[in-house]
Amino acid sequence: MQHSLAKRKILVVDDTLDMLELISVVLEGHGFEVITACGGAEMDVEMQRHKFDLIILDTMMPVEDGFSICKRLSQRAAPPIIMLSAKSMDVDRIKGLNLGAEDYIAKPFHPDELVARIGVALRRSQPSGVSAKPGLDRFYGWTLDPVTRKITSPDTLSYTLSAAEFAVIRVILDHPDRPLKREFMLAKMAELHEDSNPRALDTIVSRLRRKLGEIHPTAGPDDELIRTVYGVGYMLRPPLAKGAI
Predict the structure, then answer these.
(1) Sorting pLDDT into bands at 50, 70 and 90, what band is 132?
(2) 232 in Cβ contact with 225 (< 8 Å)
(3) Alpha helices, DSSP H only, in 126-197?
(4) How far is CA 145 from the centre of its chain?
């Protein structure tokens, strides 16, 4: 474990005590500080007591399942979320990503895989690890702070982007004058240590559009920031160029 990632505080939310104990032992063995919660209510209490660097969240829990918890966490500034599930179907993984999770791991998993994915998620969440221009980015009445990853709409409402959402915005803003092929965007996201899966890109863009729409309620049909260029990929509005990378 890299020294910069050690002593990070992680919250593990799972209703199975054996799983909580197993994950705690593994992560503490790699230098992490671990707090556990048996469900959403306990999680809320611990999040008032501590500031966490990452949350590991089981999907299948009574009272409030992990998807519901992930949804409400994504509506506020929250640390990266890695979801755990006994289900490995694509539909569940996509659902988790759509709700704002950074990653999704199917049970059973190798402890080393969990540690590796935690390391990736933590590095993604470090603003200093993301290539960005100094100062604020301003475009079409929007403001993006590359340090905090907070984006503010023309309606002055704000949303803190996940690392994956920020990577998409960063790539598009860095190439504003042309449609970007999906392959090009995936390559650039891979350079930022983001998921380079084509389906993940579409999921992130879909989630990002929804979130941006929520903080810009006065937007008209022509105000959508991320445009789909059919047969090519995506671009920043307005369509100013015909060529594609």
Answers:
(1) very low
(2) no
(3) 163-174, 182-191
(4) 16
> What is the maximal distance between C-alpha atoms in the chain?
57
User: Do you find a cis peptide bond into 80, omega within 30 degrees of 0?
Assistant: no
Complete domains list, the chain, with CATH: 3-125 (3.40.50.2300), 137-236 (1.10.10.10)
240 DSSP β-pair partners: none
Greater pLDDT, 174 or 192? 174
Angle between helices 66-74 and 40-49 (to 10 degrees): 40
DSSP string, 67-86: HHHHHHHHTS----EEEEES
CA distance linking residue 70 with residue 40, whole number of Å: 10
Look up residue 202 and give its amino acid.
D
77-81, 113-117, 130-134, 187-191: range with highest mean pLDDT: 113-117
